[in-house]
Amino acid sequence: SFVRQAVLDLRLQAEDNFVLKVVQLEELLTVRHSVFVVGNAGTGKSQV
């Protein structure tokens, strides 16, 4: 899939759960105007 190839291009591991979460976020953004990304410091929120 496109997501899996993009993950591999970024030299990341394309694990099934990660790809699923990316697809779920994309689907959520098609029906919502915004989403909140929350989490602990240093977990990569700014990279989203």
From TrEMBL:
<dbReference type="GO" id="GO:0051959">
    <property type="term" value="F:dynein light intermediate chain binding"/>
</dbReference>
<protein>
    <submittedName>
        <fullName>DYH9 protein</fullName>
    </submittedName>
</protein>
<dbReference type="InterPro" id="IPR027417">
    <property type="entry name" value="P-loop_NTPase"/>
</dbReference>
<dbReference type="GO" id="GO:0045505">
    <property type="term" value="F:dynein intermediate chain binding"/>
</dbReference>
<dbReference type="GO" id="GO:0005524">
    <property type="term" value="F:ATP binding"/>
</dbReference>
<dbReference type="GO" id="GO:0007018">
    <property type="term" value="P:microtubule-based movement"/>
</dbReference>
<dbReference type="GO" id="GO:0030286">
    <property type="term" value="C:dynein complex"/>
</dbReference>
<feature type="domain" description="Dynein heavy chain hydrolytic ATP-binding dynein motor region">
    <location>
        <begin position="3"/>
        <end position="46"/>
    </location>
</feature>
<dbReference type="InterPro" id="IPR026983">
    <property type="entry name" value="DHC"/>
</dbReference>
<dbReference type="Pfam" id="PF12774">
    <property type="entry name" value="AAA_6"/>
</dbReference>
<dbReference type="InterPro" id="IPR035699">
    <property type="entry name" value="AAA_6"/>
</dbReference>
